[in-house]
Amino acid sequence: MPDFWKNSGYHLLGRDGNGHLMVGEEFLRAYLMRPEVGPVEESCAAERALHAELVAAPAMAVPAARIEELADADARDNYRVVLPFIQRLRAAGTVEACYMNLFGGENVTIPALFIDQMAHVVLRNVLDGVEDPMRARAAEMLFRQQTVTIQDGAILAADTDTVEMYATTGGFGDLGRLLVEGGTAPRGAELDVLNDDNAATYWQRDERHDTVIDLTFARPGLDALCRVLEAWVAHFLEARVRIQPVQRISDEHWAWHLGLDVEATRLLNDLYDDVEVDDARSERLLSLFRLEFDDPSLMRADVAGRPVYMAMAMTEARTLRLKPQNLLVNLPLARKA
Predict the structure, then answer these.
(1) For residue 140, what are the contacts with CB-CB under 8 A and spacing of at least 6?
(2) What digits encode the pLDDT tens for the residues 202-247?
(3) What number of CA atoms fall less than 13 Å from residue 314's CA on the CB side?
(4) What are phi and psi of 222, to 5 degrees?
(5) C-alpha span between 95 and 22 (Å, rounded)
(6) 20 to 30 Å CA-CA from 4: which of 189, 201, 278, 300?
(7) Residue 176 pLDDT more than 60?
(8) What is the reported pLDDT for 186?
């Protein structure tokens, strides 16, 4: 098996008895080595001293007065964001517990970057031992925004950051940016759509984010996404579910639904409430899904045995930003005794 997504931090973590990722000092230290936090040439002595102490003891508590001693305002702001997150991780004990605790009803104050990083490493854990590269590519959708293109009826999703990089530099970095500014058009984006013939190449480019996934109904990419979502639910909630794409919702007893993104949530809410949805919004719907529990007793009694309908939709700007936490907090689960 290839060791993919090495930059997720997975190799810095161990597992507990439930297979969840235990937070230790090496993982916490990685946040302190980020460029936003590490000292630079202009850093003051107080900043250098604080950083050195934290690297030696990443879980140490830092009084607010220590941060106020830092000369650089940006450094103070960065520490005010990173240190509470490190303490939150440490207190939770596992990455999974920290992730779930974020969505307990209070306003989420953690930057989206950290939420995505946690999803990234948890998905690396969930996919450990999976040999299907299409599932690994599909899993990227849970922590990286996609840009969607409809081409000859096919729904193609590419990594937004990669698309924008090609658009501004043609893939040549700073040199490409200079060419664009000088009026020379760079080469177009050459992103491969994964299929049965080339899917194995994903393992050699897993951190380049330069492959495209086909999310068209009944094609392997959409099936792979369903399998990833099933594994995500099983890992966090210890509930086995089956998720399948559907082309329409024809259910007179439609009882529960959830959107996998903000656009889809609004769209399903309107459809459920018989609010008219115009053609422009309808065309942004990328997929509908039907989720069923293997064990209906895990569901709320009033909807036990009924399917949960889900949707995925792009924005008007043709971006797709999945919110995998919706699958964890919005399912109709029975209350635990």
Answers:
(1) 159, 209
(2) 999 999 999 999 999 999 999 999 999 999 999 999 999 999 999 9
(3) 21
(4) -70, -40
(5) 7
(6) 189
(7) no
(8) 46
CA atoms of 327 and 229, how far apart (whole Å): 8
Q: How far apart are the first and last CA of the chain?
A: 40
What pLDDT is attached to residue 188?
Answer: 47
For residue 94, being part of any structural domain is answered with yes
Give the span between the Cα atoms of 273 and 265, in whole angstroms.
Answer: 12
Which domain does 316 fall in, by range?
Answer: 220-329
Q: Are 167 and 189 in contact (CB under 8 A)?
A: yes
Residue 334 within a domain: no
pLDDT in tens, 244-258: 999 999 998 999 999
* Residue 179, H or E segment: helix 173-181
Identity of residue 285? L
Q: What pLDDT, on the 0 to 100 scale, is given for residue 103?
A: 87
Residues 26 and 122 occupy one common structural domain:
yes
Asked if 220 contacts 134 with a C-beta cutoff of 8 angstroms, the reply is yes
Longest Cα–Cα distance of the chain, Å, equals 68
- Residue 213 is inside which H or E element, if any? strand 211-214
For residue 42 the two structure tokens come to 């202009």
Here the tokens at position 262 are 């903000």
Reported as a single tens digit per residue, the pLDDT across 130-165 is: 999 999 999 999 999 999 999 889 999 999 999 988
